[in-house]
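<given_protein>
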Amino acid sequence: MNKRKRSLSVIKTVGALLILPLLMYSCKTSNPKLPQPPLFPKSVVEETYHGKTIQDPYRGLESLKDSSVIKWFKEQNIYAEKILSLSKGKKRVVPKLKGDNKKSHPSVQKLSITSNDFYFYFKKNVGKDSKNDQLYYRKGLKGKEVFLYDFSTYKEGYRVNYMNPSHDGSKVAVAMAKNDGEIGKLIILDVSSKKLHKDVLSNCWPSELSGVSWLSDNKSFIYTYLPDVDKNSKKYLLNTASVIHTIGGIPKKRNVVLSKKNNPDLNITAADITMIDIDDYSNQKYLFGVLGGPTAYSDCYYVDNYTGASGIKWKPLFKKEDKVKNTAVYKDDLYFISAKNASNFRLCRTSLLKPDFNSPEVLVAEDPEAVISDLALTKDGAYYVKVKNGVEAKLFIYDFKDKTSQNIKMPRPEGKIYLRTHGGQFKNIWLKTYGWTNKGEFYKYYRDENRFVKEEVYPSNSQTSLNNLIVKEVEVLSHDGVKVPLSIIYKEGIKKDGLNRILLKGFGAYAHSTVPYPRSFMLAWINKGGVYAVAHVRGGGEKGDKWYEGGLKKTKPNTWKDFIACAKYLVNEKYTQPNKIAAFGISAGGICVGRAITEEPSLFSAAIIKVGTLNPLRLHETPNGPNNVKEFGDINKPSEFQALLEMDTYHNVKKDVNYPAVYLTAGMNDARVMPWIPGKLAAKMQALNTSDKPIILSVDFQGGHGLHASSEKRNQELANMLSFALWQTGHPDYQIAE
C-alpha cells in the first residue's frame, strides 16, 4: 500500500485571475537601481506526505507545454540580460576568458589508442571556429597524421560527444547529438575509405553510459539503447536494453542481450540502466552486464565462455552491497577495488571460475590515509592509484612476480591520476594527470626502465602562467568535529586582510571527487584578484566510502554544513568577509550551495547555481527521477521523504529573509535537471525577496546540461557568471554605473 496520502488544494481559477496583476508587478526588491523581475502567478498545490502537508506555490511552472510558462521563461531571460548589463565591467571578462583557452597549437581531445598502436583523436586548429572537432589518426605517436572526417559537415546542429575505434583501428564509432544534447545517434566511419557506413543507430547515450564495446571480429559492438528519449515522457530513460549491432545489419532489428523484458529472472527494474563491458581486447571470454544508474555501486552479472550473440545465460557476479569498483580481468581472475569492510577501498582478486566477494584474496589492504581510486592491469602487475583528500595522488604497482606493492615516483606531484591500458597481456600503460597547476599531461610509463615519457600529439605551451599560483590544502572542522578538506588557490601576493573576493565551489554527491584542475573560470577569477576555493564536502568520494555515506540521503545535511564550515574558516582566517564570498555549484552541487545560502544567508554575498538540483522533493516526477531515487531518497519512505524535504532549497526559502544575490541557469533541453526546477526557485525567491540583491534566471532555449556546449557559448555563460560574482563581491570595475 502506498503510504503517501495526497490531497490537492488548488486556488480557484477565478481567484488566480483576480490576483494576477498584483503578482505580476509587485516585487519586494528594495534596490531602486534594479529593474523588477517578471513574477509568476501563484497556484498553490497542497500535498500530504506521511502526515505532513507541503505547499507548492509554483507547481504551475512544471507545465512546460503551457505557452504562459514558456513566455515567463523567456521574460526571465530578458530580465537576466538587463541585470547583467548593469555591471559595467561585463565586457572586460569575456576576452580574458577566451584568452585563457587560447593555445598556439591545435587542441586535441578524446585521444584513443588501439592495441595495434593507432592513435585516434579529434583536433581543432588554432584560429578556426569550427562547430565540431575534426577526426584524425596516426600509426604510432610519431606517425604521419591522416585526416579522416570533418563531423561539422554531418548534419546542421549536431555535435560529437563520444568516439571509440575498433580494436584493429579499421572503424570508428562516433556519437553525435543536437546542440548541447547528450542523447543522439551512433554512426560508424570506415577508416580506409573515410566514408560513413549506412548504419545509423538512434537513441544512444554512450558518452554517459558504458560507451561502445567492440567485439573481436571488429565488425560488431554492444551499446545501450534507450527506448524513450522524450524528456517529457514518463518512460524517459526507462527500460534500457543492451544491444549487439553488426555493421551492415538493420539498426531497428535489435539483437538484445540484456534488458528487463528479455531477462525477467534477473529482477531488473525499469530504472536500471543496462550496460555491457567486455574483459579485454584479445580474450573476450567474459561479458559483464551492469545494472547502473546515478549511484556509486551497481549489481553485476556475467557470462563465461562467450562465443557469440545467441544463447546468453547471465549469472550473478556481485551486488551493490559488495561495493565493487574498477574491475579488470586477466585470464580467469577478476581484479577489483572494493569498499566492503574497507572504507578507503582495498585491491582484491577472485577467480571467475568460482567468484567469492565475501572473502576475496586481498592484494593491497586499505590505507587509512588515502583512497584507492583507479586500477589497470598489465603483464607486469596491477597498477593502482592512491589519493589523499581527493587532491594528492600517488602511483603504485602490485607486482605479479614478487607479490609486493611498490610506489612509483611521478615526474611531479599530482592531484589526480587516471590509468589506461590495453589489458593484462600487454606491458604498455598510460597515465593522464591533473593538478591545480597542471592542465593535463599524458605519459607513457616504461617499467623496465622506470621511465616516464610525455606523449604529446602536439607539443604544448609551457604552463608558466600557472607557476605563480599558491595552493593551500587544509582541513576544516565541520559542525560535528569532522575534518573537511578545503583547497585554496590564489596568486602570489594575496594578503590575509579579510578583503579578498572568494569563489567557493561545492558538490558532494554520487561519490564524485572534484578533480583538481585549472579551469578557465578559476583562472579568470584569480586573474581578477580573487581567491578560488573548493570545499570537498561529504557526499563526494574524497575520503572514501564513509565520506560518501556521510552526505547520502538522511545524512545529506552534512554536505551543506561542511560547505558553511569552509566559508566560515575563510572568514576566520582573514582571507575574506561574508560580503565577499560567492558560492558556486553545478547540477547536484545545487543542493550544497542552495541549502547553504538558505541556512546561513548572511554568510554569502552571492550564489551561482548552474542547472542545479533545487527541488529534490519533486525529483520522482521528473523523467530522470527514478534513477536519482538511489542517490537522494524515496518519497514513499517516511525517513527518506523527510531527508528530501530537508535538502530541498525551494521548500526552505522563507519570508522576510535577506538572501544573497542568486544567479540560476536552466537548459530547456536538459536531460538531467528539468528547467522548471531552477525556474520554481527563481519564482519563489523573486516573490519573497526583501533584500536589495537581484535574483536572476538565465535560460538556454537550445541548450541542455552544458556538458557538450560549444566553447563560444560556454565562455559567454562563464563570463556572465563571473561578472555577476565580481559585481556582488565588490570588485570596483563591475559595479552599477552611476
